[in-house]
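Lab notebook, page 48
Experiment: co-folding of the full assembly
Goal: obtain a model of how the components sit together before planning crosslinking
Operator: M.T.
Materials (sequences as entered):
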Amino acid sequence: MTNIKIAPSILAADFTRLDDEIERVLKAGADYIHIDVMDGQFVPNISMGVPVVESIRKTFPDAFLDVHLMIVNPSDYVEAFAKAGASHITVHLEADKPEDISLALNMARNCGVRTGLSVKPVTPAVALEPWLAELDMVLVMTVEPGFGAQPFMYDQMKKVAAIRKRLDEVNPACDVEVDGGIKPDTAPIAREAGANVLVAGSAIFGKEDYAAVIKELRGR
Ligand code: DX5
Ligand code: ZN
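Observation: model returned without errors.
Model output:
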């Protein structure tokens, strides 16, 4: 039985009460805190950066901070996010030249941080091949990156299944994370396809009972 991890995305949280929101969602059973970093270049939105990771790490020394860099030239910032307290850093394959993606991942690893590579909906699974054996996680976007509360892209499930199958051959311990449009009705579809880490923002934050939603997304 695969152990499913739930990663609430604070992009959807009330930023005026971020410590309460994180406290609440951790108490409700969240495994990771997903931090969506956007630079206004790689995606047409600007969200949060290193200072936010620093203050979350200070207040929550034991939380697993799953940092999703939706930024260009990630190798310029990986060390700063690692130093700020990221537990895991995911960069986008489309964000730089292949050699600089490798550089970003090696820098993160040298900082003792777990590493992930993410693909936009348009990018095929095969593009990940050169890095699959070395990653701790692959993140398959199930929306166009940049905004929360978008509809789930069901056509990404074939990609999730293909990546899970390939990982079972070359790197079975590597997690498969999905991000975007994960709700109680789409979570089972993503789990079925092979995702074992589910990012959810608008499905959780703003709801009455965080524990109930997290339990539903986890599927037991
Ligand atoms: C997109 C963001 C969102 C966010 C989750 O760039 O990464 O996917 O984490 O948003 P929801 O769960 O509201 O679709
Ligand atoms: Zn994300």
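Interpretation: Helices lie at 18-27, 50-59, 78-84, 98-110, 157-170, 187-193, 210-218.
Next step: discuss with group before ordering constructs.
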